[in-house]
Amino acid sequence: MDDPYYLIRRSHLPDVIRRTTLVTDLLGREPQLSVLQAVSQIGISRSAYYKYKDVAKPFQSTMQGQIVTVALTLQHQRGILSEVLNLLASLQANILTINQTLPLQGRATVIISLETRDMTQEMQAALDAVRDVPGVEQTLIVGQGY
Asked: Which residues, in sequence order, are CB contacts of 120 under 8 Å at separation 6+?
């Protein structure tokens, strides 16, 4: 039986694992840093970082290379869905399915399944960009698979 996965807030992790995630974040933001420089800034040992770096990952990073299903709430205005689809395409998301409800009370729900393998941004950054499209009221990940 495989080890089960748990979703837990970083603030509730033991200090060494929390610091490991901070080192990983720092290395992602500042790739010119060496691991030694990053662990020194965060205050853990290199051995602790290497022990935990592959077992503590942000939830959104686990979605790279998978099929993700997103629910969007869009205002009923011409061109909003097209703009969302163009944005996702520009991020190299491979859109697999699109389902849209009829607009009720000026809003429609759109369910999009997409493959994230070739995306140029992590899923959370992509959702933040979609959320910034005028007329997009809500984005929510409703499923993921391989």
From this structure: 91, 92
CATH 3.30.70.260 placement within the chain: 63-145
Q: What would the two tokens of residue 47 be?
A: 């051995």
- Its pTM stands at 0.57
Question: Quick check: helix, strand or coil at residue 63?
Answer: helix
The span from the CA of 80 to the CA of 95, in Å, is 16
Kindly report the CATH number that applies to the domain delimited by 63-145: 3.30.70.260
Question: How does pLDDT run along the chain (146 residues), one tens digit per residue?
Answer: 466 777 788 788 899 999 998 998 898 888 899 999 999 999 999 999 999 888 877 665 554 558 889 999 999 999 999 999 999 999 999 999 999 999 999 999 999 999 988 888 888 889 999 999 999 999 998 887 65
Residue 129, classified by CB atoms within 10 Å of its CB into exposed (0-12), middle (13-18) or buried (19+), is: middle
Identify which of 71, 74, 114 has the alpha carbon closest to the alpha carbon of residue 92: 114
